[in-house]
Amino acid sequence: MPRPLKAAAAAGALVLAAACGSAGTGTTAGGVKPPKIAAQQSLGPGEGSVNLIAWAGYVEDGSNDPKTDWVTDFEKQTGCQVNSKIAASSDEMVSLMKTGQYDAVSASGDASLRLIAGGDAAPVNTALVPNYADVFAGLKNQPWNSVDGVSYGIPHGRGANLLMYNTEKVSPAPDSWAAVFDKASAYKGKVTAYDSPIYIADAALYLMKTRPELGITNPYALDRAQFDASVALLKEQNANIGEYWSDYLKEISAFKSGDSVVGTSWQVIVNTAQAEKAPVAAVLPKEGATGWSDTWMVSAKAKHPNCAYKWLDWIISPKVNAQVAEYFGEAPANARSCARTADTNHCATYHAADEPYWKNVHFWTTPVANCVDGRKDAKCVPYQEWVQAWTGIKG
């Protein structure tokens, strides 16, 4: 998931985490079923504090920007003092959650998958989160936040990975990921790509549409032949890459300077670059796109579970979820938040209520050995091998 522009400016360069987890088959990493952990059945009095792990921009108390504060009112209304730890990666989130010192985490996918498999995250009783009723249906009971119909988290927001291009240098306007793959040589040295192993899924998505003989049906479920084809495509692309990016402040700068003219981006980057007079536009290509969605999860070892549940309900309440979405640069999870954003066009810009739009977005899903596309007669390449391959792709 992306980092908020304002928080990134305050915190410095931040590295984007990898993807949303998959548990739709009832299995997790390596085919391991989630441990049997009971969801909380009722709420009692708050314990007086709550310890959170979060991405920068998700737990704002006014210290970064006096005008950006949704923590203080939470503390006043619930009596739960918020103690937050900003994580710079999903690996860090997993390590911190394993300590048992934290009550909840705003997990991205590879973190959520490992937390479920390791027994570090408990199922969430959505009945104890009243505002869950107003979460967009397209975010509920999805492979990245549920296992066999059991919810393991509360959706926070979502976004798509777009194709951004320099309108003065890239002509005609692209409508396909071919601009960064098969036709990338036209922009040699000025193509940019997201710096993460999960970017292999972008190549797989392109091959899913352009090389149907490979039989790819899910860009996160790749058998050996499909995986090797995706890696080969990315190695070819590497010759045309000017820069791999993870800090999107740097991507904005590269597009403003002309060092980059085409590549993967997010809506918040497009908006900011355009506001800074960069000649850029963006498109959701005809092949579709990858995307991200974050989930608030409760620790199986939470020492302050009642305050944790109160936080989950607070962070997706209409007003607060609207504040977070605007500050962070994402589509809110709560449908009622769209009426509460300061920018009346925010939800339209980020396609918050446009479910047909999201049908073309393949949300980040951690690759596991048991293919998440439902195949029983094949083994898929697990995420740790994606990590190894990414090092080889970049050279």
Provide an overview of this structure.
The chain is of the alpha/beta class and 395 residues long. The chain folds into 2 domains: 216 residues, D-Maltodextrin-Binding Protein, domain 2; 159 residues, D-Maltodextrin-Binding Protein, domain 2, CATH 3.40.190. The chain contains 13 helices and 15 strands. Strands 1, 2, 3, 4, 7, 13, 14 and 15 form an 8-stranded mixed β-sheet that branches. Strands 10-9-11-8-12 form a 5-stranded mixed β-sheet, covered by helices on one side. A two-stranded antiparallel ribbon has the order 5-6. Strand 1, helix 2 and strand 2 form a beta-alpha-beta unit. Helix 3 runs parallel beside helix 4, helix 5 crosses helix 6 and helix 7 crosses helix 8. The protein is globular and about 60 Å long. About 7% of the residues have low confidence.
* Tally of domains: 2
Helix content: 25-40%
Largest sheet: 8 strands, mixed
Mean pLDDT: 90
Oligomer: single chain
- Unreliable stretches, pLDDT < 50, 5 or more residues? 5-32
Contiguous helical run count? 13
CATH class of the largest domain: Alpha Beta
Shape: globular
Which class do the helix and strand fractions yield? alpha/beta
